Amino acid sequence: MNTLKFITAGNVDDGKSTLIGRLLYDSNSISTDHLGVLASTNEIGQETIDLALITDGLRAEREQGITIDVAYKYFATERRKFIIADAPGHQQYTRNMVTAASVSDLIIILIDARKGITEQTKRHAAVASLMGIKKVIVAINKMDLIGYDVAVYEEIKRGFEGLNKQFNFSELIYIPISALNGDNIVSLSSNTHWYKGKPLLEVLETVEVDTQLENNARFQVQWVIRPQTKGYLDYRGYAGAVLSGDFNLGDHVRILPSNISAQIIGIEKNLQSVDKAVAGENVVLHFDADIDISRGDTIFLDIEDAPITGNQLNSWISWLDNQALQLGKTYILQHRFHSVRVKIKSINKKWDVNTLEFLPAQELQLNDIAQISLQTNQPLHYDAFATNSKTGNAILIDETSYDTVGALMFL
Amino acid sequence: MKESNYLETLEQEAIYILRETAAQFEKPALLFSGGKDSIVLVHLALKAFRPGKFPFPLVHIDTGHNFPEALAFRDKLVSEIGEELIVGHVTDSIKKYNLKETQGRFPSRNALQAYTLLDTIESHGFDACIGGARRDEEKARAKERIFSLRDDFGQWDPKLQRPELWDIYNGRMQQGHNTRVFPISNWTELDIWNYIKANNIELPGLYFAHERECIEYNDKLIALSSFTPATLGDNVIKTQVRYRTVGDMTCTAAVASSAVTIDDIIEDIKQSRISERGQTRLDDLLSEAAMEDRKKKGYF
């Protein structure tokens, strides 16, 4: 059993919350006391529970009638554990969708069968593609309201195929559903006998999750373990994350920025010695030489391609702050465990995610997406985000408020 | 894929977050309640930092209404792992600030606990507090970040939380602010128990079925104790119970259960359609937004 993290995206009225409610409810993942709370908000005499209310959490939100943040929901079947990052559909909360997409392997894009592809559909697909999501389920919802008409389904499918030429999705799955009635959610519906695919839950259970195992080996040092206590006076272990590929005992590696080579003479995982560490694991490495290695250093295999090293780089940016981006102002760039100071030199082009057009731009506001050039005060050791989604990304932080103001995907 | 694969993903994520906390903050602390979630946190910290010492002390906010079994277990665990324990006493805050105790039959010191927590944070200068809260526990927690920012009053405002992208955590903050860190955010109650089983983690006996004298109160079973004596008209029964959560004796209900092994408990939870807090916490039942309100005031 493994885990699938996914995000659901749709307009406010596309039935997104109903769909999540349905998945939780039908997989027995919603507790009766939570349902009790939902029932108490229902009108008297209303017999069905409001599935949408399952995902609407805070009182402040219910009063305002919006979801103001990303909510995480959990459910499990015999085959998989699922983590849903539920991002709101409102335009002003695109930054939350960026956040939710950044932690997801897959996106479910909901389309109201009556409305077809809208600007928001494009935006959701664009953001998912920008954030490196490769797998997409296009759930065409409210099929019950159009009499389960296959022609409508086919038209939306053709429309999305056309859109996909601009994106880089590796897997696209179309499912006609009614979240409210449960058509094609857990089991195939007799209302859509023309649909030959799997129901949504089965797709979620069986879709393959991308791993970083095949990529070049990359390790970043997170924390140095030096107990200097009796019995461990000479112990010096470098705890960190294997971000991609694998490292084996005896491997010759190179350490950046010092550019010194060393041999791995020990790997510990969960306090046990192991021969190999793979992407996704947090291990402690030991080297043959007494080298000065610190938090944030990058380690790669000597026989493989080195990461890019440089202090002038081009990047995608998703601007997340209420204050506009300022050219020439110094920000902090946090490249996982390594932080540097950075200035944005130029905004090269802005991407209008509603029309998917590139436009010239002088400034970036909240929710804007653009390509920029930046300069750091120390070299970064990175890969392009398209090649390696674990070493090609960073966050931008305001130096005075310390808020996270931008998401960077290096070009 | 083997069964343990998803537990390993959760474990690796938690170890990563613990090390990140150690690296980014000057003076972190691990909030230890004595419950199963914080016991799992301690176990994860061993995996993250051994053979080194923990880069933080354990901090227990003692309400004065704890189960004696939980306190004994706490002290035993701390001496076994040889780490520092700091205890903040709610009774001290009650005296110091002349706080008014919650009234009622089964009063909770939850609201008062926040004073002690914030005092302890301030007097020791902690800039980050690691906690065992999980997003599946309660609605107000479903929207919680891994690094959750609190203002000078320990307050949480959902609208002010930073976007948290990928697994890149930003722990920078203004003087006086504090970060709460939740390494097991993505775990569910069932995940916790599967992990306890897979790693043979020892727990206080309270979690397993035992015989206890309980007051039947509405549909809940409250252990008979000096904090919760029987009153006239109470129906007191001696029965097999276990605790699904371990909070204060005054406001944590027992569950009728014959589960004596971890496997029994896992089966119990799989069958249960009631959330753990809903089944056992009288304090959460007060109102629909009880947790949201407490969190805003600086509760974990």
From TrEMBL, chain A:
Its EC number is 2.7.7.4. One of its GO terms (molecular function) is ATP binding. InterPro entries: CysN_GTP-bd, CysN_NoDQ_III, G_TR_CS, GTP-eEF1A_C, P-loop_NTPase, Small_GTP-bd, SO4_adenylTrfase_lsu, T_Tr_GTP-bd_dom. Keywords: ATP-binding, GTP-binding, Nucleotide-binding, Nucleotidyltransferase, Transferase. GO terms for biological process: sulfur compound metabolic process. Transmembrane segments: none annotated. It holds the Pfam family GTP_EFTU. It is an enzyme of class 2 (transferase). The keyword DNA-binding does not apply. It comes from the Bacteria. Residues 1-213 form the Tr-type G domain. This is sulfate adenylyltransferase. It comes from Myroides pelagicus.
Automatic annotation (TrEMBL), chain B:
This is Sulfate adenylyltransferase subunit 2. Belongs to the PAPS reductase family. CysD subfamily. The gene is cysD. Residues 28-253 form the Phosphoadenosine phosphosulphate reductase domain. The keyword Calcium does not apply. It comes from the Bacteria. It is an enzyme of class 2 (transferase). PANTHER family: SULFATE ADENYLYLTRANSFERASE SUBUNIT 2. Coiled coil: none annotated. Its EC number is 2.7.7.4. It comes from Myroides pelagicus. Keywords: ATP-binding, Nucleotide-binding, Nucleotidyltransferase, Transferase. GO terms for molecular function: ATP binding; sulfate adenylyltransferase (ATP) activity. InterPro entries: PAPS_reduct_dom (IPR002500), Rossmann-like_a/b/a_fold (IPR014729), SO4_adenylTrfase_ssu (IPR011784), Sulfate_adenylyltrnsfr_sub2 (IPR050128). One of its GO terms (biological process) is sulfate assimilation. It holds the Pfam family PAPS_reduct.
